[in-house]
């Protein structure tokens, strides 16, 4: 009798709480988790379908915790602009064992002081010093691409992620490891498993308790993989610590004018003296994870789009020849700015395929949006993947059209209409670091190879980072030098 009464009260509370905002019907204990987990097209599509159906502010229940997805640009701006809500939403809870108090998952004063301290490590002055590292790594990437010439379709993301992991460790961490080895691929496999299980755990109410999850098969796999990742990062930290001990760093970091240079990421923490060992590990895990995967996504999706759209590729190539000549090894800071059309292509690619499709905050006090108020204690996620597909701003949103980002088309558009790097105080710290590499790699690859259409992108199921099923499959053909030579400059434009 008492149990029946409790269930009725529970159901009543549920129905009252879930009435307040439009969203799919939850069930007690599970909320919408079962529907999310079992959606035939995966988690991302579940949210797409429901947000389209219920509107710009859609409520879900993850077990007994509310999650609101927002897609209206004004609402997104209100949430991201403020420093009042820097805590991350419940969708980050289960990635915390990996990222700890690193920049992505930390909040409050700790996040604020770390962000301030680490920001100079991603300044352009430092990135410029890394250009030779990126170029060296691109050479290896090109050797790997050469093996694919004339062959069948292949997953370009697998190749690019090898590049971006190596480039990240050699630049931001200052360590040259022989990363084409087994340990590298073991790390990548472990990271893949951890991300998959984080997502599974988010939508599995039975795994919410640490006690239960640790004892499950998935939990034991998760923690085994976490050990592999931590070992990988610790190895990097210890190696750099040893190198810094041996070198006269104070002399190394003086520029030609006798001024102290900004320190790269890992050095700035190791030399600061205020970061605990655990904090350094959290930050290193965070930067490797946040950085290499999304750069690889950006490059791979752009190559895919260029393969599918030969006319666009031709314009990008013509612009490259015009700005940099044949020798893209001298791709300089000025060239990055001059490649205007390539910028449009990148913006359009990041619109369609934002590497981080959803990012959220936990609202600790009531938050007034444009037409509604979010109650304290709610997680609110910006659904960039869907807001980037708003047909009123981006007509035919599934069509790849870089002209949407021509100056005249962008005029008057909402500043938050396309935010692949997020915006506001918690926006991506590595945006410049990423864009320099994306452009450099694209320039080098396109200089040597023409990208041919491969296979249409499969279903995208994941939520943490955008990963299509079956990878990103393209084909490549070597450009013959004769093709380059027949481009001639006629009346201000390049013609073949
Ligand atoms: C194309 C490449 C990249 C994209 C699209 C991207 C996107 C994003 C987005 C959307 C966020 C906000 C996430 C959130 O609020 O949860 C973010 C945050 C972050 N990103 Fe990136 N990112 C990229 C590359 C990088 C790189 C190369 C690094 C490091 C070198 C990096 C480090 C970070 C960090 C540390 C944060 C957390 C910042 C904070 O909360 O203070 N990202 N990134």
From TrEMBL:
<keyword id="KW-0492">Microsome</keyword>
<feature type="signal peptide">
    <location>
        <begin position="1"/>
        <end position="18"/>
    </location>
</feature>
<keyword id="KW-0732">Signal</keyword>
<keyword id="KW-0408">Iron</keyword>
<dbReference type="Pfam" id="PF00067">
    <property type="entry name" value="p450"/>
</dbReference>
<comment type="similarity">
    <text>Belongs to the cytochrome P450 family.</text>
</comment>
<dbReference type="InterPro" id="IPR050196">
    <property type="entry name" value="Cytochrome_P450_Monoox"/>
</dbReference>
<keyword id="KW-0472">Membrane</keyword>
<comment type="function">
    <text>May be involved in the metabolism of insect hormones and in the breakdown of synthetic insecticides.</text>
</comment>
<dbReference type="InterPro" id="IPR001128">
    <property type="entry name" value="Cyt_P450"/>
</dbReference>
<dbReference type="InterPro" id="IPR002401">
    <property type="entry name" value="Cyt_P450_E_grp-I"/>
</dbReference>
<dbReference type="InterPro" id="IPR036396">
    <property type="entry name" value="Cyt_P450_sf"/>
</dbReference>
<keyword id="KW-0349">Heme</keyword>
<keyword id="KW-0479">Metal-binding</keyword>
<keyword id="KW-0560">Oxidoreductase</keyword>
<dbReference type="InterPro" id="IPR017972">
    <property type="entry name" value="Cyt_P450_CS"/>
</dbReference>
<protein>
    <submittedName>
        <fullName>Cytochrome P450 4C1-like isoform X1</fullName>
    </submittedName>
</protein>
<keyword id="KW-0256">Endoplasmic reticulum</keyword>
<keyword id="KW-0503">Monooxygenase</keyword>
């Amino acid at each position: 009798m008492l149990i029946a009464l409790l269930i009725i009260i529970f159901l009543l509370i549920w129905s009252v709480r879930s009435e307040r905002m439009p969203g799919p019907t939850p069930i007690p204990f599970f909320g919408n988790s079962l529907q999310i987990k079992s959606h035939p097209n995966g988690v991302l599509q579940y949210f797409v379908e429901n947000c389209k159906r219920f509107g710009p502010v859609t409520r879900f229940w993850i077990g007994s915790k509310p999650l609101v997805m927002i897609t209206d640009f004004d609402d997104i701006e209100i949430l991201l602009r403020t420093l009042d809500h820097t805590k991350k939403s419940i969708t980050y809870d289960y990635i915390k064992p990996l990222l700890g108090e690193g920049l992505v998952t930390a909040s409050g004063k700790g996040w604020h002081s770390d962000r301030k301290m680490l920001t100079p490590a991603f300044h352009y002055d430092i990135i410029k010093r890394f250009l030779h590292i990126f170029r060296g790594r691109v050479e290896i990437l090109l050797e790997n691409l050469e093996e694919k010439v004339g062959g069948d379709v292949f997953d370009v993301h697998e190749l690019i992620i090898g590049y971006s992991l190596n480039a990240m460790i050699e630049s931001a961490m200052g360590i040259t490891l022989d990363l084409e080895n087994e340990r590298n691929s073991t790390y990548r496999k472990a990271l893949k498993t951890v991300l998959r299980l984080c997502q599974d755990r988010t939508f599995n109410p039975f795994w919410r308790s640490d006690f239960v999850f640790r004892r499950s098969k998935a939990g034991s796999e998760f923690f085994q993989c976490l050990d592999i990742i931590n070992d990988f990062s610790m190895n990097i930290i210890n190696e750099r610590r040893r190198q810094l001990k041996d070198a006269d760093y104070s002399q190394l970091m003086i520029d030609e004018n006798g001024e102290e240079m900004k320190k790269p990421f890992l050095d700035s923490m190791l030399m600061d003296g205020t970061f605990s060992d655990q904090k350094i590990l959290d930050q290193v895990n965070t930067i490797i994870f946040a950085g290499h995967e999304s750069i690889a996504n950006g490059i791979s999706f752009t190559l895919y789009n260029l393969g599918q759209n030969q006319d666009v590729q031709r314009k990008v190539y013509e612009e490259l020849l015009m700005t940099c000549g044949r020798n893209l090894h001298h791709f300089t800071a000025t060239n990055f700015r001059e490649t205007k059309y390539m910028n449009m292509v990148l913006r359009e690619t990041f619109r369609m395929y934002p590497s981080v499709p959803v990012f959220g905050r936990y609202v600790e006090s009531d938050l007034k949006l444009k037409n509604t108020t979010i109650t304290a204690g709610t997680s609110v996620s910006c659904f960039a993947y869907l807001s980037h597909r708003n047909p009123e701003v981006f007509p035919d949103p599934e069509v790849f059209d870089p002209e949407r980002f021509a100056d005249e088309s962008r005029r008057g558009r909402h500043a938050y209409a396309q935010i692949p790097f997020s915006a506001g105080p918690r926006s991506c710290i590595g945006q410049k670091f990423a864009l320099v590499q994306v452009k450099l790699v694209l320039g080098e690859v396109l200089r040597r190879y023409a990208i041919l259409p491969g296979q249409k992108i499969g279903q995208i199921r994941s939520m943490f980072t955008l990963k299509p099923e079956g990878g990103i499959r393209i084909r490549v053909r070597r450009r013959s030098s004769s093709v380059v030579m027949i481009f001639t400059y006629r009346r201000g434009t390049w013609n073949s």
